[in-house]
């Protein structure tokens, strides 16, 4: 099946037709979605590639988000801003993501994991809005590479000591606890930065603010999930060390999530607020993955998928407001409800998903994570309650500040929305609310 999808993507690289690429991506997501999770436990593709249920879900999410990215980036097509190059960069990024989520070899996984950085940098530097995009790209490059070089050394050491880099066959030899701890930190930090965790998160808001809508949707929808996926693949090598030091990650995830939520409450830029909210949600995902429990794992995967759909839709909405108003400031874009009432409905629907209101997929994921965290330690109940409260608080702040109040801009009328924009928002919202049925079956 993966070979068929690769063939479709390569055919469209030669076509250079925006509509054909877009439709073929929707077709690829539909065909790939015909696979049932019950038909395989570890589906072998060949050449060091394979699938399990986590990789299957994230590949399907990647294809779906990429199809929506092209639908939301009509401004690039209408202004003829190097359209063919834009398509090639996005499809190469999708190819690297699909390879990353289907690798069974650690070294191949590292190469594909790092190769996704190059198309993302090109998107930010080539189609970004502001002159500060160069600084944002440098931030992203150095944060990622600084943490990734120890990971490469870790994989090389693993090959020298265990004789293989195949996932499931590699194992850490018996060494002193200090050496294993250093090895564990070197292996985990690359994925923690990519997630990103609080204290190493500063590259994400800068990248989001300077990126075009395609870069923001891809970053929020798929690229942040690379960190969680990497932790799922690497942490089983260090089970005893990970369980011993799980309290460190739980503390950083919960306390950092609360601090970032407070930072969200004082943001004036729409995209910056949504980016910081991603850091808070990913902090909860980090906690769930570091618990080494089924509740934590299932909850983390469900939240990753739900956040990918919801956050991508919010960035798409912020871009629609920016295209009409010329500003992302919450102080300028007040009162959008007065002259864009239909988009206000979508603001409400996706904001409800961001605060994990029923019946969204985020609700099921956060319930699973909260059950796993409280089962690990009842002391965490206060920080979990604070995180849930502030998650609703900053989402309501975003909605009320943008939709209500006195309108200050000189714009008196504009399009309340195009059919294409409504379709993109619907294709974000519908899976977010329908997939809770599949997620419930997965958890139960």
Account of the 3D structure:
75% of the residues lie in helices and 2% in strands. It is mainly alpha-helical and 444 residues long. The protein has a two-stranded antiparallel ribbon. Strand 1 (43-46) and strand 2 form a beta hairpin. It is globular. The model has no long low-confidence stretch (mean pLDDT 85).
Instruction: Indicate the proportion of strand residues.
Output: under 5%
The percentage helix is over 70%
Uncertain stretches: none
Distance between the termini: 28 Å
Written as H for each helix and E for each strand, in order along the chain, the element string is HHEEHHHHHHHHHHHHHHHHHHH
Q: What is the SS-derived class?
A: mainly alpha
Mean pLDDT: 85
Number of contiguous helices: 21
Count of beta strands? 2
Characterize the largest beta sheet: strand count, sense, and whether it forms a barrel.
2 strands, antiparallel
Shape: globular
Rg on CA atoms, Å: 21 Å
Strand order of the largest sheet: 1-2
Task: Label this structure with key terms.
single chain, 444 residues, mainly alpha, two-stranded antiparallel ribbon
Short description:
With 444 residues, this protein is an all-alpha fold.
Summarize the helices and strands and which ones pair or pack.
Layout: H1 2-15, H2 18-33, E1 43-46, E2 49-51, H3 53-72, H4 74-78, H5 83-101, H6 106-115, H7 117-127, H8 133-162, H9 177-194, H10 203-210, H11 213-234, H12 239-244, H13 246-264, H14 270-290, H15 294-325, H16 336-339, H17 341-354, H18 361-376, H19 381-403, H20 419-434, H21 436-443
Antiparallel strand pairs: 1-2
Helix pairs in contact: 1-2, 2-3, 3-5, 3-11, 3-15, 3-20, 5-6, 5-7, 6-8, 7-8, 8-9, 8-10, 9-11, 10-14, 11-14, 11-15, 13-14, 13-19, 14-15, 14-18, 14-19, 15-17, 15-18, 15-20, 17-19, 17-20, 18-21
